Amino acid sequence: MPRRRTSVKKTRADKKKHLQNLKIKQQLKKSIKQFHGLLTAKNIAEAKKFLAQVFSQLDKAAKKRTIHPATANRKKSRLMKRLGKGA
């Protein structure tokens, strides 16, 4: 356990930020799975609309540095490739 007041405060802030990051990452995974589900069900039109939402979430997570920007770009690229194949 930290002893200094600033260290205690930093630990508290880190824990809070960690929980926020986890929530963002879980939401991302959930959205990507939902997108894959739409593709599996052959709802291409609906998947295209939903893809904009997923891209927005990825960009926001990258902007906040929750995930690395290159990771966000890679995921977006792979999702577009998957949409192009239609499955």
Q: Which structural class do you get from the secondary structure elements?
A: mainly alpha
* Global geometry: elongated
Determine the CATH topology.
Methane Monooxygenase Hydroxylase, Chain G, domain 1
Count of distinct strands? 0
Enumerate the spans where pLDDT stays under 50 for 5 or more consecutive residues.
none
CATH superfamily: Ribosomal protein S20
Largest sheet: none
Write down the CATH class.
Mainly Alpha
Describe it:
By secondary structure, this protein is mainly α. The protein has a single domain, classed as Up-down Bundle (Methane Monooxygenase Hydroxylase, Chain G, domain 1), CATH 1.20.58.110. It contains three helices and no strands. The longest helix has 36 residues, at 5-40. The chain is elongated and about 55 Å long. The model has no long low-confidence stretch (mean pLDDT 95).
Which key phrases capture this entry?
87 residues, mainly alpha, Methane Monooxygenase Hydroxylase, Chain G, domain 1, 3 helices, 84% helix, 0% strand, elongated
Reconstruct the topology from this structure.
Blueprint (H helix, E strand, L loop, with lengths): L4 H36 L3 H20 L5 H17 L2
